[in-house]
Amino acid sequence: MDEQMLSDPHSALREFLAQSDFMRHGGVMTDLDGTAVHEEDGRVYVSVPMETGLKRMPDLGRAVVINSLRFPLSLIRTFGTAWYRIAGVPVPVVSLRGSLCGRLVLQASGEIGFEEIEATCLAAENINEILAGVSTLIDSGANELLIFFYPRDWTRGEIIWTPDATRVMAVAAKYRSAAKVISGDVKLLESALMAEEVCMIFRLLDLPQDRAMAYQHTQRNSFFTYPGVDKHYGARRIAHHLEMDLMHSIGAGDSPMDDFLAGVGFAVIVGNMQLEYKGRIHTIRLPDSLALGKLLYAVGELGSQLSAGR
Question: pTM score, two decimals?
Fold first, then answer.
């Protein structure tokens, strides 16, 4: 990868802003966890540098899109209120691995809500394939299996199924983000999944260490969306609705799931993980979300200068 390790990325950024049409058709798209939010002493929050950088984007008339694996209720409960307060405008969101696009909006009640733009849900045949895998695991004695599913109706949040009724309370205590934990056989799970439109399913083998070896050749966790739907797909879909050109946009991510980095003009890899993706014009690496916030502030400064000079 032709990747620039820059302590001061201004030269690459200045070149990108000069070469691209960012100021008219671009925007910023960022992952959250490990990328745009800061973790310190067990607390995860939007840092001051990131807040300062985010505030510059509305001044330029450029959107900042959140592209996250999180479901809308999780976004709202964790960072939504703070992010909306910083942005001061509805916040475009790609959630659930590209399957649900929308906006964080201020509701009449004064609370932050979610407004759907577009959803791509799992088809019945996709769900049947997942259920076949679930049945195979249950038949092999994997009662520690958990199925997390995320309905299109964002108010439903996260629902978890366990085949073991004795684990319901423990699962609810461990995964506090869940709205509900249900238990029963695979038929009950099938009924729940077929009863409403579902955007994403997450399968987790929640195994104790002494049993992990028995399933060493089984993928311990898997995300399922409609075939072809991922964060890059979601990026393209929301960009279409926002009339935002990814080629002229800045993207930031930190993990292999952040495949939308391959679609943007200026890709920012945050942290130390080696990723195969690179931006279509520039790729840089930054150490953490604090540095990303400073980069966004620089976008505001350089963008203002370019606008004044044109």
Answer: 0.91
